[in-house]
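Incident review: delayed structure delivery

Summary: a single-chain prediction request sat in the queue longer than the usual turnaround. Root cause was a stuck worker, restarted by the on-call engineer. No data loss occurred. The affected request and its eventual output are reproduced below so the record is complete for anyone auditing the incident later.

Affected input:
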Amino acid sequence: MHPGTDGRFDEITSGTVWRLRSRACWQEAAELLLPAAERDPRAALCRAELLIEQCLFTADHWEDAETALRLAEAGVTSTEQRAGASCARGFLAYLGSVLGPRDRLDEAQAALGRTSALLPPDAAGRPLLDFRRGLVAENLLRDQTAAWIAYRRSHDGALARGDTLLSSYTWRHLAALALAGGDRLRAREGFVHSLRLREELGFTVGVAPALAALAEVSEPEEAAQLRAEAGRLVQALGGVPVWLAGRLGEPACQTAGAPGGPPGAPRGAPPSARPGVPVARRQPPPDGRVGRDDRGAVR
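Output delivered after worker restart:
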């Protein structure tokens, strides 16, 4: 799905599709993949992952992702493809639990469990699976020990396979756990690595969360500069990620048809503290690792 991964879709996803994706234009990227997705299950899964990522950053467009994922699931022709579709299903259910209107924890665990059963221990899809299982453990099960183990496996696998984007996620999530344990030096190291990798990749939509995370372990003056830069990026991309826009105090979602936001950016009213989720069931952000809850625990 991005530069540094293996597979015949590298040329596509490191070119126009990658540039659109990195600038929060998931709908346009998915449209480019649609002709191939209708006849090739690998393209269908690639397209589904793009639209699931859109849900992550916008807390919206759930039906688009569901439709694309059903197309991918219907077209699988191998165990590897079945595992990939199941892993995507688990991630979409996880996001639905954190950002969506209802709890889908059981679905997420079942889908990720099926993925694990389908993949050999050294499979290329293991690092991504481990990362997603870490997300479920940390943010839904509240088990930081299990989350750290899963993130660490994912991190090692991503580094071994040269998966730069996944490494940027694992660096930050391991750093967030280090910060929760009081190790600010290790946390800062991880946040710095995460930001550097995203800037090198040109993953623009993911830079603001990395800046905001680094601000958590920076001195006040530097932290203010980092948050201001993150806020400018969020605003330039039309208010995404929506769950970070609210924390930075930036205007989040543009109204439909308003100028300044790329197609595929969220529309409608500004988000609440947890977009798409009633305040009573606020969850940690699915990405970004910023802010503190009412108990003072690092999110």
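Verification: Confidence is low (pLDDT under 50) at residues 1-9, 250-284, 288-299.
Action items: add queue-age alerting; document worker restart procedure.
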